[in-house]
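User:
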Amino acid sequence: MAAKNVIIFPTDFSEVSLGALPWARRMADQLQADIHAVYVVEEPHIYATLDMGPVPIPSVEELTRSAEKRMSNFVAAHLQALGGISTRVLVGRPAEEIVNYAKRQNAALIVMTTHGYSGVRHVLLGSTTESVLRHAICPVLSIRSN
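Assistant: Predicted structure:
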């Protein structure tokens, strides 16, 4: 029996990321695929100046546990009715981890939103979606948020 198709649905738990959900559902129906909801925890970075004392930051383990709870709540609130949903919390750079996870899963498609930033905001904030589009080996459906 052939392996079931997989669609990757990256989320940051925001309302914006939910904009891609109807498309992920449609494509899952068309491709008879399971949806893998993915969130990426970025490792904390410490930026210090001479006038700052020690700044407590959460560990990667704490961030991951928190993200797993948030993912559980997110799925319960928005994805429960779908069935066939898998969830993953990854650690690293979001675009890189999304692309690598899609490769490991031999994903048929990645469906995600983009904030549509341009100009200075794009330069300062970067674009996870743009990086995924450039590096993914499977098709990427990018849905612009309103």
